[in-house]
Amino acid sequence: MIFKSIISAILVTILSLAGMLCTQNADLNLVYAALFCSPYFILITLFYFCFNGIRRKLNLLDQPNIIFELAYGFIFYLTSCVLLPVLLFVSTLGDEYEHKLYADLGDLISEMFPIILILSIFLTVFSSILITWAIRSYKTLLPVIIIYIVVISIVYNIVQHNERQETVASTGNIKATGEGWRGSMSNPDAYPVQLYKGIFLLSNNERYEFTFNEGNTVNYGAKWGEDGGNTNKKTMSLPKELDLTWYSFAEDCFYRLNSPIDYNKLQMLFNTPYTEQIGKRKTQENYNSVIMGFAPGGILVVWAGSSGRRQIEIGRYSAEKVNITKPVIDGEGLKYGDVFNQEWRKKVLTDTTIIPFKTQQHTKNKPIPYGYWDKLRTRYNWCPTFVVSPEIKISDADFRFYNAERFVFFDETLQNNIYEERGIPKNVYIKWYDKNGNRCAVDFEFNEEKTFKQFDSFFNHQKNTKATIEFNISQKDKTATAMLRNGKNQLLLLQTNMIEYDKN
Hints:
Layout: H1 2-23, H2 28-57, H3 66-91, H4 96-99, H5 105-134, H6 138-169, E1 182-186, E2 193-202, E3 207-210, E4 239-248, E5 253-260, H7 263-270, E6 274-278, E7 281-285, E8 287-295, E9 299-306, E10 311-318, E11 320-322, H8 342-350, H9 357-363, H10 372-375, E12 379-388, E13 393-401, E14 406-409, E15 420-423, E16 425-433, E17 438-445, H11 448-461, E18 467-474, E19 479-486, E20 489-503
Helix pairs in contact: 1-2, 1-5, 1-6, 2-3, 3-5, 5-6
């Protein structure tokens, strides 16, 4: 019985994951995730079959009932699938860097939910109807698998056909993923905004009116350059113009931007998949979001965000103040999301889930630092180089910049870099495996005020036109340094200690 249960669990997992991947027109990243998670689904399926065995011993609904099997099986698998991202969230609590991947648990579950739902249905069908009966007779099992292969092939062909039809139907669609793209909202944590009206003028001249999170709500726990509220993801042409009207709570005014954006750059990025390295495996990733950052003074910065670890600025644009009024009834109570409601405006500026308490205290009675977000966009002509001990082979170097861009260097890009205009690094996380298979890393956290002064002094005062940032890692001393170099001129930016993790 145990042998049959194990075989059943493996078969259910393989067939269900394969079916889910076919319905999703999966890329390599999703295939890798499915393989990585397969032991978990084998385990929960085995638990499902063990429960069935206990049920039969207790003579509890020993004769299979299809409706009952479907109901409790679906609830069991849906709960187990939702539990997986929660377990990943908890398991990374001791690793600050890895934990960032799962920090926004609510959004993660929401984004994964369509896949979770489909996978739960497949697991339920194979566990509750097919395998539970078929495993009792191997003569029945073979035709069940054959029928499954035929059905999945038909489903896969239908998905592929629909995808080709959608791609052909819309000029300027992203070509690489078929998953579409979405608009995303960003703002500084101290200065929330609310979209009043948003319109994308697409490259095929269609107008697409949108809101964030199915309504004009604000970002909770916002960070500049990181996406917060999102539009629905759609496969459609990319935007060539933006027509945005928003309310700035701290400034108590509306802004409107009606402007073309750099469509050529956006299209080039979205239509060109890039290679990403996850652990020791490589996957194909795509740009899939247009992130709009709203800063005080009517500043809008647009980035192309991706499914991997890349983010590139598209451009910076200036909006104009506009006067939009709506009568407000005296004594009107709080109405969530009503931008004209005084109680709502007050709540946004005082709610610590929107603006953290420390941020409120830090900015209290201080003027808005207009121009600060333009300063973050400062660029210099530089490239990174890596000097390491002979026994080190770097896995990758993850760069986050103060201008909210992000780029990961690995393989040939670790050594063959070119000089180009880059932002000032905010964080650089370099990891590798030593000769014993232990994972090691260095985490450079660059102080904003100090680092900006260092770059200004090195590039402007000494009239340097270009430089390298040399990252030197010493396995022997367990330390690493970041050094600005130009010929004989050099300036130490930061020294930090090496981090050693458990084996693998």
